[in-house]
Amino acid sequence: MQQSLPSAFVDNFLGNSPVWYKWTIIGFLVANPFLLMVFGPFVTGWILILEFIFTLAMALKCYPLQPGGLLAIQGVIIGLTTAESVYEETLHNFPVILLLMFMVAGIFFLKDLLLFTFTKLLIGVRSKMLLSFLFSAMAAFLSAFLDALTVTAVIISVAAGFYSIYHKVASGKHYDTSHDHADDGQVDEYHREDLLQFRAFLRSLMMHAAVGTALGGVTTLVGEPQNLLIAKEAGWEFGEFFFRMLPITAPVLVVGLLTCVLLEKFKWFSYGTELPESVRHILEEYDVYMAERRTKKQTATLVVQALTAIFLVIALAFHLAEVGIIGLTVIVLATAFTGITSEHQIGHAFEEALPFTALLVVFFGIVSVIHSQHLFDPVIQFVFSLELESQAPVFYLANGLLSMISDNVFVATVYISEVKDALVAGEISREHFEHLAVAINTGTNIPSVATPNGQAAFLFLLTSAVAPLLRLSYGRMVWMALPYTLTMSVTGLLAVIYLL
Q1: Which residue from 3, 70, 231, 394 has the least number of CB within 10 angstroms?
Q2: Taking the domains of the chain in order of start, what are their residue ranges?
Q3: At a CB cut-off of 8 Å and minimum separation 6, what does 191 contact?
Q4: Nearest to 74 by CA among 42, 21, 26, 10
């Protein structure tokens, strides 16, 4: 029987997403104009944010770009924000967009070196607890000097490399055979249980490392974009920023790493899964296979990638240029000296980054609604109405809660601007302003690990190609981040109260 045209439209809308999900999105789009007429722009703005968070939570059902984009477009059409405001918000975050476009692609051209290095680490360290600690600590250290998105891109490349090796072998294929890693139908029956265990093993490593990027990112001026903004408003240089944050960041770092160890030891919150011996054996065989067949040309490629990686660390640590420009330089260096010259080879590197870049611009559209409708103003006014000694802890909590549902860079921008205005107006002292600046920075960086939309690095991980392979959904990320959220947030709050 031939399909009707209305039925074809329904089938095409959001593709292979579940029918209930399609009708939910349609329901949102139909209801929003009526909600605006009944409740006004403030309430409707908050409802739009919750709807967008829903699309993020359902990322494994449908990539959030399309449903989230429809909501953002509607926000402009019904007047919750303007196209100009969206453009200004996007322009303000242009360095982040450049970073995604070029740095993630740059990391793609270092994947041989990364896989070689981390394979040695994975094979050499048999203790899952120690391996998890190393992943988290290394991510924290790198994120203090690099950008969390860059470090997350490295983690994703490593996990995808490990997964592809095992999945290919488990499907009865050779290392150098082309293979669809998303198709479990080819996996041999006796490998299926190990595949499930391997996924859980990689998920836990990914989450430990992702939280590590937050632990390190809060500590330095270059760790997160909002750190630089806050430091600029406060007039702090690299060293002063580090020591201003140290009373909060040092105990949080210790507690975060201790949480990592305890989660692995007691196997709480889906952590503690060991690497199956069959998988370890395959990775060991792969390492031997690659070593035996490594040509001089391939060795030269590894050397070039290593030198490029050293340049990357130095360039980012000393902020020789905008991060995205450094990423473009990495692409040029890592391709020019390794024989990669075709447009197709280079274009493949951008497949991972550009969908997320588009999604991030949609996210800026939602943030523009927050800005245009002043959705955070009641919170700011409430905090300033409190006694001075209560303001820093409440700022920490308010920034943390809002960063869980919004962009932590935007939250920090709004709050530090309000606090700076209060300082200029003579309403608060310079010392109190500095205390509030520390509370804003730590509040936007630490509790925001609670949800994938709290930090760009977490959102990048959720929407990456490796997330569906490892069954790393929004809900699972929230669940696995929960113990970190509790221990780190409480430690940060106590530090703000007693040590600031």
Answers
A1: 3
A2: 1-80, 94-349
A3: 170, 278
A4: 26
Q: What is the pLDDT of residues 119-140, one digit of tens each?
A: 788 788 889 999 999 989 988 9
Look at residue 491 and tell me whether its pLDDT is greater than 90. yes
Residue in this structure with the two tokens 């296979």, named with its chain if needed: 289
Residue 355 class from Cβ within 10 Å (0-12 exposed, 13-18 middle, 19+ buried)? middle
Helical packing angle, 277-293 and 111-124, nearest 10°: 130
Q: Closest Cα partner for 403 from 249, 225, 144?
A: 225
> Which pLDDT score is estimated for 478?
92
Angle subtended at Cα 126 by Cα 120 and Cα 130, rounded to the nearest 5 degrees: 95
At which residue do the structure tokens 């520390």 appear? Answer: 438
- pLDDT, tens digit, for every residue of 452-466? 877 777 888 888 888
Q: Which two structure tokens, joined as six digits, stand for 333?
A: 């260096």
How confident is the model at residue 401, as a pLDDT? Answer: 86
Secondary structure of the chain as H, E, C letters: CCCCHHHHHHHHCCCCCCHHHHHHHHHHHHHHHHHHHHHHHHHHHHHHHHHHHHHHHCCCCCCCHHHHHHHHHHHHHCCCCCHHHHHHHHHHCHHHHHHHHHHHHHHHCCHHHHHHHHHHHHHHCCCHHHHHHHHHHHHHHHHHHCCHHHHHHHHHHHHHHHHHHHHHHHCCCCCCCCCCCCCHHHCCHHHHHHHHHHHHHHHHHHHHHHHHHHHHHCCCCCCCHHHHHHHHHHCCCHHHHHHHHHHHHHHHHHHHHHHHHHHHHHCCCCCCCCCCHHHHHHHHHHHHHHHHHCCHHHHHHHHHHHHHHHHHHHHHHCCCCCHHHHHHHHHHHHHHCCCCCCHHHHHHCCCCHHHHHHHHHHHHHHHHHHHHCCCCHHHHHHHHCCCHHHHHHHHHHHHHHHHHHCCHHHHHHHHHHHHHHHHHCCCCCHHHHHHHHHHHHHHHHCHHHHCCCCCHHHHHHHCCCHHHHCCCCHHHHHHHHHHHHHHHHHHHHHHHHHCC
Are 489 and 446 a contacting pair, CB within 8 Å? yes
- In the chain, the amino acid numbered 484 is Y
